[in-house]
Amino acid sequence: MKERGNFGSKLGIVLATAGSAVGLGNIWRFPYMTGENGGAAFILFYIGCIFVLGLPGMISEFIVGRHAQTNAARAYDTLSNGKPWKLVGYLGILTSTIILGFYAVVAGWCLQYVYAAMAGKLVGDAAFVKTYFVTFSSHPLRPVLCGVAFVLITHIVIVNGVQKGIERASKWLMPILFVLLLVLVTASCALPGSMEGVRFLLQPDFSKLSNKVMLDALGQAFFSLSLGTACLCTYASYFTKETNLLRSAGQIVMLDTMIAIFAGLMIFPAAFSVGISPDSGPSLIFITLPNVFQQAFVGMPQVGWVISVMFYALLVFAALTSTISMHEIGTAFFTEEFHLRRRHAAWVITILASALCLFCSWSVGAFDIQLLGYSLMDFCDLLTANFMLPLGGMLACLFVGWYIPRQLVYDEFTNGGQCNKWFFLTFLFAVRYICPLAITLVFLHQLGWI
Ligand code: PHE
């Protein structure tokens, strides 16, 4: 097989994997999930899931990927000597392609908002901005074109290869996004009446903890970390032997969580300030933010304009580093397993994801396409985030905890005994017992069996 690409620098690895993790999951999905699930109590449960289940799960995927140095399905296959564990890889590939389909719809909305911000179309009161969003997203063609355009942009980056495409993009844009978020948090918290929103985020009301809240928090944690799709496994296959898996996972988890919390601190104070209900669902950021840009920069409309354009453009890039990772899983699989050219393999995923994007976009706009009482888009979102990802993550933990040789796990975790030795037993305990049990309990609880 021809030499596989490697990430060029240490920083490149962490940033590219963080680029996969940080995306619309943090800035779009986290706030609306928090809003729908009542605020601070959800966040606490979410943070618990991130550190107790997400971190060990992420390291498990890293171990499988880096050791096998191949696509997700073959990685599980090789490490299990042909036992059906490769189904975990297939599950990951299926999950990530479905996510790519509906994620592209929202990424397409962001693309439209870059244009709208530039053209000054988002200027008006809360009701006006809401009408703008509804009119745009329910148009039969425009949102679809934006979504499919987004899949195509991802396609272009993917066919340019691992290192050039992914790494170069991640290195510069993530830090800028971070700084801009801080500016917007400050601006949002300075609006009149914003403290109500801060309280909503920070003062837990445990009477709001329910089955749904727990499952949503678990799903959100896995979605945000890109965990359970074998995406991290695929990225880890490009890591070098020197990469410290625990440290990299720790950095990514911290960064991802911080960005989500900042996104919350950016949205809710503003939402409370302008009277937008925190549970307004997926459109929350598209309706709230334009108000921040106008009201926080009153008297300096040019500043508001620059910041709004930059923000939506960076959101598009954050989404892109995530869609690249979703796309890469399937592309690596078809390239290596079916001996297709990378370019052709990429088309398979692009066509599947674009088709799904089309129907998902229609299902929340122009046409009423429903499955089990949900719009197709919500259905795909819930199915993947709340079931497929936790299942994939749990299987990765079981695989690493119980199936593959302990010495192999030790060698990968400690880089052959050079680092992290003291944490090994804790990690093993987490992947063997805590993660599988906790995830099973949440599932059973959801089914009403316990
Ligand atoms: N973690 C990404 C985000 O937060 C979404 C994602 C999910 C990416 C699954 C890859 C795989 O936006």
- SSE string, helices as H and strands as E: HHHHHHHHHHHHHHHEEHHH
- CA radius of gyration is 21 Å
**Oligomerization state:** single chain
Shape descriptor reads globular
Explain the overall architecture.
The chain is mainly alpha-helical and 450 residues long. It has one domain: Hydantoin permease. It is 76% helix and 1% strand. It has 18 helices and 2 strands. It has helices spanning 10-21, 24-36, 40-68, 72-79, 86-118, 126-137, 142-159, 162-189, 195-202, 211-224, 231-236, 245-274, 284-295, 301-337, 342-363, 376-403, 406-414, 424-447; strands at 370-371, 374-375. A two-stranded antiparallel ribbon has the order 1-2. Helix 2 (24-36) packs antiparallel against helix 10 (211-224), helix 3 (40-68) packs across helix 4 (72-79) and helix 5 (86-118) crosses helix 15 (342-363). The longest helix has 37 residues, at 301-337. The model has no long low-confidence stretch (mean pLDDT 89). The site of phenylalanine has 16 residues, from helix 1, helix 2, helix 5, helix 10 and helix 14. Phenylalanine is lined by residues 20-21, 23-26, 96, 99, 223-224, 226, 229, 231, 322, 325-326.
Considering the chains and any ligands shown, give keywords for the structure.
2 strands; two-stranded antiparallel ribbon; Hydantoin permease; mainly alpha; 18 helices; single chain; binds phenylalanine; 450 residues
